[in-house]
Amino acid sequence: MDININTPALLFPAVSLIMLAYTNRFLALASVVRNLHDRYHNLDDTKKPLIHAQIKNLRIRMRIIRNMQILGVSSFIIAIVCMYAITIGKMETASFLFAASLVLFAISLILSLWELFISTRSIEIELSDLELDADD
């Protein structure tokens, strides 16, 4: 594969935008955790198992989002190193680095999809809580 300096540069806008989306997910999740913490201390003991289910779900999601961000940043850094390799004429190394950057970015996106599925489970837990309230 013949690549030039513009090839890895194509990843910059994509990675930057996805990192912004990941940061927004993280901030939204942090807000949910804070709200859940406040709710937990105001609930009676019968409702606490639902909160425990939410906590388990949130811990998994936080780890996934952390890994998504690590992979996204790693992809970005490797794309920069790839551009440097192109600049100094190490084309074989640059091709390898570009492929590695793409793989890391793809894994990051796959984790994002996985986190999306888990987040729907979190919403289902909330809905089951509402259904219990409606039954009372």
Please characterize this protein's 3D structure.
The chain is mainly alpha-helical and 136 residues long. The protein has one domain. It has 4 helices and no strands.
Primary descriptors:
single chain; 136 residues; mainly alpha
Fraction in beta strands:
under 5%
N-to-C series of helices and strands: HHHH
Query: How would you classify the helix and strand content by structural class?
Result: mainly alpha
The assembly state of the depicted protein chains is single chain
Mean pLDDT: 86
> Radius of gyration from the CA trace?
21 Å
Tell me the span between the first and last alpha carbons.
65 Å
Major sheet size, sense and barrel closure: none
- DSSP summary: helix tally: 4
What spatial form do the alpha-carbon principal axes imply? rod-shaped
How is this fold's topology laid out?
Blueprint: H1 6-9, H2 11-42, H3 48-87, H4 91-135
Task: Describe the structure in brief.
The protein is mainly alpha-helical and 136 residues long.
